[in-house]
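request received
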Amino acid sequence: MADQYINDVVLFNGLDKRNKANFIIKRLTEKGLNPKLQSFSSCFGEGKNIYVEYGNNYENTTIISAHYDGESFFDNSGGVIALLNVSKEILVNEFSSTSLVLLFTDQEETYQQGAANFLRDNCKYYFTKNINIDGFGIGDELYKVSELVKNSNSEIDLFLCDSDEFLKFGIPSTTYFSAFSNDYLKSNRNNNIYSVFVKYHSESFYFKKYSPFNTKSLFQKLNWEINKSSKHE
Ligand SMILES: [Zn+2]
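response:
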């Protein structure tokens, strides 16, 4: 499973943006899902978001996102492949109270224009929560940074990602990311990084060492976040 994950990340990362979009659409379609395309233009040019909708309870929808316009394994090819791997399980689940949107955003690297355009054009939804995956595939631990932590921290500029755009629209957002070992964070206490990273769960995968990537574990965490949001905490 780990080898397949790494192969996919390497393959995906080597594609140009148009073919990255095609890759995502193809994978989702192969899983029996029905991906849709949102074309938009911003001052940074033409962009394409890819998304899958599930359920029609528009007033209570969780949106799960990963941007695909980065150019490195970590940012965010690893996150895209991870989200693709759990997409079917996440969507086709026995949720009754929350609908779901799985969103692969373009133009995150240019002031989150992909997320901004998606939110502007999909006003039928009331998004109760965003779960964002960004910076994923390197490191031996999984972390999350929540909206509460971000808002209370003056170093918010450190965390430019799609979460910022969801927060701007008033949608609580949590970003999941891997990387940095706990030792690294401890050694960086002084520059305030440690205080905003909430260690959630230790994962036993490390990209460079080809350890197993645990799809099931990621699914369980996302599932937990979704259900938490559906109960309005
Ligand atoms: Zn990113």
